[in-house]
């Protein structure tokens, strides 16, 4: 790192963090955390971009806003969809080998998209392929210092309330403080606060909790997306995802008698927006009826494009060529997060956020499939570029107040909290259940005053005050 220049600290090394770090050259960057097992690396969907014949960014924007129930920030949507073709070209230039059909992009279709618009790399192993290419690019970037086994523990604010320093903790538990005027949070989502999620264990809301604790405003915290087809298997931890692209390729949701469950419920049937499909699967399972994803029509050849999903099924004793796979909705993505402006600035000077932990309003009340890796690239590159000018060390403000997320729960209490949030803030909500969950968090001695409970209370509060259903936030008690 060059002497005298204040580093940019990027917490989180999924796709968004990697893009910020790379684009911030020549400013010295400390990239904190590893990308292995990040939500980006696990992603089976690809990148949505209007690349097909007859497709246009305006059509991509229409689908984005329809999925988002019109709650989207339309300027942010335009920015995202207009930049999408260039984002794909940029990733290809970084070495991502996107799937092709001859000279053309091989375009897949997912829920909510009016046409085939998704580029994949290695079929449903897209996230890993993209992260691998970006990891190689970052490894060759002299301005980036990796602190892959460190985590962000706390941040310090100056007298004037701006970011002044961060405290990192290493794998051995040792801490160190680093002075910086700029912290980027790219720490991902909140899925593991819920009993059923497709998210990796690291997606526990720690970055969001720290930002809220420091006084940064949150936005749209009630909007949590449920993926309709996680593999319904017992055990704790992330549930295996069966990508929506399987339904794009012809797989069908069926009940135990083999009847197609989405027929007649939505004009797009199995490819209806995720919230619609997730609620139907949830409704049936709540009534005690299993729902299955039937992939048999894809045959050996069709399934070859889904090596990840096939391997996940096989690991659980399911042969997708012969057996329909039992599925359940599971928390997949948080549309809400730290409120940021179009340039990734939070309400706290020097604190920036990008990717799932941030909320610019682009996804509205429900994210359109394969818009999240896209957002990581578009917003990550823009934020890195904005922060690329080295700040003079002399304007570095002195740390005045340290902000920690606070004490965490023990494992048993965390399990209880996950069950509580899943039952109260799942695909179908009502005020009485939300209020009871809020009360439990206050009175249960193993939960009260923990950072997870404080964050969960913020989510529940947001879900209570939005009384009407919108997008992924469905209130059974609203008209
Ligand atoms: C999927 O592959 O079904 C998920 C894609 C996404 O979340 O965008």
UniProtKB/TrEMBL annotation:
Annotated FAD-dependent oxidoreductase 2 FAD-binding domain residues: 9-373
Question: Which cofactor(s) are needed, names only?
Answer: FAD
- According to its UniProt record, this protein's enzyme class is oxidoreductase
GO function term, MF aspect, one? L-aspartate oxidase activity
Look up keyword Phosphoprotein and say if it applies. no
Q: Name one GO biological process term.
A: 'de novo' NAD+ biosynthetic process from L-aspartate
Gene3D superfamilies reported for this sequence: FAD/NAD(P)-binding domain (3.50.50.60), Fumarate reductase/succinate dehydrogenase flavoprotein-like, C-terminal domain (1.20.58.100), Succinate dehydrogenase/fumarate reductase flavoprotein, catalytic domain (3.90.700.10)
Keywords of this entry: FAD, Flavoprotein, Oxidoreductase, Pyridine nucleotide biosynthesis
Q: Which PANTHER family match?
A: L-ASPARTATE OXIDASE (PTHR42716), L-ASPARTATE OXIDASE, CHLOROPLASTIC (PTHR42716:SF2)
Q: What's the protein name? A: L-aspartate oxidase
Q: Which organism is it from?
A: Arenimonas metalli CF5-1
């Amino acid at each position: 790192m060059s002497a005298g220049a204040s580093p940019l600290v990027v917490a989180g090394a999924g796709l968004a963090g990697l893009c910020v770090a790379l684009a911030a050259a020549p400013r010295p960057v400390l990239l904190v955390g590893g990308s292995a097992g990040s939500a980006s690396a696990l992603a089976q969907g690809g990148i949505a971009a209007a690349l097909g014949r007859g497709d246009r960014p305006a059509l991509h924007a229409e689908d984005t806003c329809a999925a988002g129930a019109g709650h989207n920030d339309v300027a942010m949507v335009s920015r995202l969809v207009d930049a999408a073709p260039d984002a794909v070209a940029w990733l290809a230039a970084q070495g991502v080998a996107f799937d092709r059909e001859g000279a053309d992009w091989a375009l897949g279709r997912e829920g909510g998209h009016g046409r085939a618009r998704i580029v994949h790399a290695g079929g449903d192993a897209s996230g890993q392929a993209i992260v691998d290419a970006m990891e190689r690019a970052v490894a060759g970037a002299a301005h980036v210092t990796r602190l892959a086994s460190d985590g962000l523990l706390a941040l310090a604010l100056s007298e004037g309330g701006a970011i002044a320093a961060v405290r990192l903790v290493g794998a051995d538990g040792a801490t160190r403080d680093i002075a910086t005027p700029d912290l980027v949070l790219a720490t991902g989502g909140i899925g593991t606060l819920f009993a059923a999620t497709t998210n990796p264990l690291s997606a526990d809301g720690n970055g969001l909790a720290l930002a809220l604790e420091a006084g940064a405003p949150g936005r749209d915290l009630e909007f949590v997306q449920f993926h309709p087809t996680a593999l319904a298997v017992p055990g704790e931890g992330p549930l295996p995802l069966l990508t929506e692209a399987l339904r794009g390729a012809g797989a069908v949701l069926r009940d135990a008698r083999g009847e197609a469950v989405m027929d007649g419920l939505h004009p797009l049937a199995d490819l209806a927006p995720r919230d619609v499909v997730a609620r139907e699967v949830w409704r049936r399972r709540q009534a005690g009826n299993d729902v299955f994803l039937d992939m048999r029509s894809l045959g050996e050849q069709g399934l070859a494009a889904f090596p990840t999903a096939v391997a996940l099924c096989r690991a659980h004793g399911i042969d997708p060529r012969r057996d329909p796979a039992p599925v359940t909705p599971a928390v997949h993505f948080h549309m809400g997060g730290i409120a940021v402006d179009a340039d990734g600035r939070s309400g706290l000077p020097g604190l920036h956020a990008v990717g799932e932990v941030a909320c610019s309003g682009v996804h509205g009340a429900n994210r359109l499939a394969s818009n999240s890796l896209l957002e990581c690239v578009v917003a990550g590159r823009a934020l890195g570029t904005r922060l690329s000018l080295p700040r003079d060390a002399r304007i570095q403000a002195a740390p005045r107040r340290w902000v920690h997320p606070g004490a965490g729960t023990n494992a048993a209490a965390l399990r209880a909290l996950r069950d509580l949030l899943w039952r109260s803030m799942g695909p179908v909500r009502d005020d009485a259940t939300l209020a009871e969950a809020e009360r439990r968090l206050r009175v249960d001695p193993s939960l009260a005053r923990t950072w997870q409970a404080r964050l969960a209370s913020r989510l529940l509060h947001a879900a209570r005050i939005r009384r009407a259903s919108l997008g992924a936030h469905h209130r059974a008690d609203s008209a």
